[in-house]
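Sequence in, structure out. Go.
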Amino acid sequence: MLNILASLEQIFVSLEMMEKTRIGVTLSSLSRRSDDVEIQQRANKLLKLWKARAKKAMRRRARRVETYGRNYADYELWTSRIATPGINVRRQVEAGLVL
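Output:
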C-alpha cells in the first residue's frame, strides 16, 4: 500500500480527474480505516496536497469566469482535459507505473 501512495505522490492528478474518479473519497476512507500509522499519515498528506491544488484550480476558474465570461471557462475546462498530465493516469496504470 505504501508503494501505491508513493506512486500517487509522484503523479499529477488534475481537478477534473479527482472529480471523475472520486479518488479523494477513497484516500479519505483509507486514512481513517487503516491500522498502519504511516499509511494514515501519507494518505492525509496526499489529501491535503490535492485539496490545495483543487482550491487553487477552482479559484483560477472563478477568476477566468469573472474576467472572460462563462464561455471562456468552458473552453478552458475542455482544453485542460486534453492537455492535463493527470489524464494519462490510465496509461500509467496500464504501463505498470501506478497500481
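Check: The helical segments are 2-10, 15-21, 23-33, 37-68, 70-83, 89-94. The domain at 2-94 is CATH 1.20.930 (Transcription Elongation Factor S-II; Chain A).
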